[in-house]
Amino acid sequence: MNAPSSTPNTTDTLGLLTDMGLRARRAAQAMARASAAEKNAVLSQLANAIEAQGTAIAHENAKDLEAAQKVGHDAAFVDRLRLTDKVIAGMAEGLRQVAQLKDPVGEISMLRRQPSGIQVGHMRVPLGVIGIIYESRPNVTIDAAALCLKSGNACVLRGGSEAIHSNRFLAQLIGDALAHCGLNRDAVQVVPTTDRAAVGAMIQMPQYIDVIVPRGGKSLNSRIANEATVPVIKHLDGICHIYVDDEADLEMAVRVCDNAKTQRYSPCNTMETLLVHQGLAQAFLPRICAIYVQKGVELRVCPATRQILEASGFQPAASQPLVNATEEDWSTEYLAPILSIRVVETMETAMAHIAQYGSAHTEAILTMNHAKAMRFLREVDSSSVMVNASTRFADGFEYGLGAEIGISTNKLHARGPVGLEGLTSQKWIVLGEGQVRG
Amino acid sequence: MNAPSSTPNTTDTLGLLTDMGLRARRAAQAMARASAAEKNAVLSQLANAIEAQGTAIAHENAKDLEAAQKVGHDAAFVDRLRLTDKVIAGMAEGLRQVAQLKDPVGEISMLRRQPSGIQVGHMRVPLGVIGIIYESRPNVTIDAAALCLKSGNACVLRGGSEAIHSNRFLAQLIGDALAHCGLNRDAVQVVPTTDRAAVGAMIQMPQYIDVIVPRGGKSLNSRIANEATVPVIKHLDGICHIYVDDEADLEMAVRVCDNAKTQRYSPCNTMETLLVHQGLAQAFLPRICAIYVQKGVELRVCPATRQILEASGFQPAASQPLVNATEEDWSTEYLAPILSIRVVETMETAMAHIAQYGSAHTEAILTMNHAKAMRFLREVDSSSVMVNASTRFADGFEYGLGAEIGISTNKLHARGPVGLEGLTSQKWIVLGEGQVRG
Fold first, then answer.
1. What is the DSSP letter of A185?
2. Which candidate, A354, B31, B332, B437, has a CA 20 to 30 Å from the CA of A24?
3. What pLDDT digit, counting tens, does each position of A128-151 carry?
4. CB-CB under 8 Å, B435 with A389
């Protein structure tokens, strides 16, 4: 929506963001020193406040819902915007879970004595100021604030303009919880304007913001990736592959490939292309494709796949005949009940296909052959590489991070699911007893 | 020099660099798979070749020296350019040392079983293609190539135009060693043109180059930091501080502060500002300043420092009277026999001074008080923070990295001295037995 209350003005917005950046930078110094007890107290206080203020939250949220309906957003959009009782309870629960997580700040590791006698190691420290840019769902305001707080960072949050009333109110609750616990309320700031220039300003102020985490759709993510001068924990496409080797366990392959495609269609870790070794294709493809057809998955196939399926007497649904895969299919992230399938002659062909068309997000091999599993693991250059598991596991919670701020397709810094550690860095520490350099 | 043989032409240079980038990208895939034995064989082969070809190297180097003298570069400049027998022997020795280092690629860590039954961990992998931009010293060509090779990366090296003949010849030796060992000679490419547009092209081709490491003077580094769209392992100023606490050991303070300033004046980890607690200033300042004066260090002091020194009967050298420090002094990296000194009332004042004027490179506290040491260690936000040790230790070799490609002032990815690990990343690996997501 274009919030009627806001008068977009690029100069004012830049001034607003500069002021917010300055205050975030100052608050970050204090946050970095906050103890685990102080940070956890804020999280608990905020969880209690959210439960106590459920009605007021719903009241503010109703303004956003009404505005969204008025400008003609569809029902799915309005649903994502809605803070139901369940979503509100989920926010409070999420805060308490983050409070339970180990504080990453101050962790000392790898402290080793060097020949000079000094001890050298790492200490984990906050990054400073995190900028998070997200769309529609206002509960992200609470989730993101919790992770930034726990990792000792200040943050500037820029939510979707459609959720402005909800976000402003949640920001107020967060600020009150910080102040109640004696911390600086500038540690979490929500951009109060819906002016789109705010995003442009945020991603180009490296003096105030240390890293940007975009959590939105493709167009937002790629705009940020292209225009930001602040480092970005990028999240680009997830064109995930499973390669079913000729030495795969057939039952396992059916189970895993079913799960990887059909458990949910929209996540970035859902399989988009299935590569099958020619040696197993005749046994495997008719079985798995029968499942896909039954679940309404459209199949876009290579000529060999079509030949094998047709020779097997496979019956596509009348409404969804087999489609011939085009060159474009191999590099498409469907995020939908569509799957491209290719039969390959060797594992090398599969790995070459992944290198050429993949997005380096998540790939899996299904095989019982140890040497091939290890080679695939080593040679496939993706943020997650799996053996005999569903690509759907590429997720911060499933990886044991306890939380997830996003999935990174960067190679530098965080790669793959990013938890609290991805919002921190390590500095070197040196403990001496008066050593000097010779 | 402006190499008379090269006709700068921006379009041609962009085409040249694009071609080099494409070839580097292809070579990187093969390098990532190379075994430790293969990589070490290249390093040994190259060390042998450098020793065998010493005369030919010196012959090519003479062309650079002659050209540098002809255009009027001073003796110090020409000296840096000179590949003496000792420097040539050092290159071979350096290659053999890098061959001895543990191969970082493929290291699996933190493999832990999750509640779903999958095992999740990290595998260390090369970054891909490293771009290194450096000035004058041609031996950097060999050092940088060795580290990129060992870490499984391809690289594009852009040395100083003054060293073009030396660098081209060394590039030939590196390519021959790669080819001799059955690896792709495109894994190490030296930009063969002296056209300055090559730097601009390199730092703006993220599709071919994954990270840029600048190794040069301030102006080169800051130009690259400002203009690069490829991520940069930045190296900005090193305005290093030592804070001498009132509970410091006096003898240790004298020894460490002498070393941190005077052992060498030009490195980035040399102390530039000395902060002294008022409680120890009268005992400490006259002693340490007598040493500085004797060694010819110019002192730029705050009013309290001047007062204490003058009251103590301290005698500055006639040629170097005490200078009153200006606001600018506190934020200046001298890289010279000049030191700014300030007396502070508390450790908090010292930490605030460092936060305001420092460059987040390396800071040290000298104290026998454990609580103060730990607080300084935690709260000072620099890439290296030390207790009771000379800032001069901030160095990859002293930290046990075995090699150093540079010192990073970034917060994301590598911070502080960067060794082989800083040229790698970690991907997630998942080992399953057919698990699917519930």
1. G
2. B332
3. 999 999 987 899 999 999 999 999
4. yes
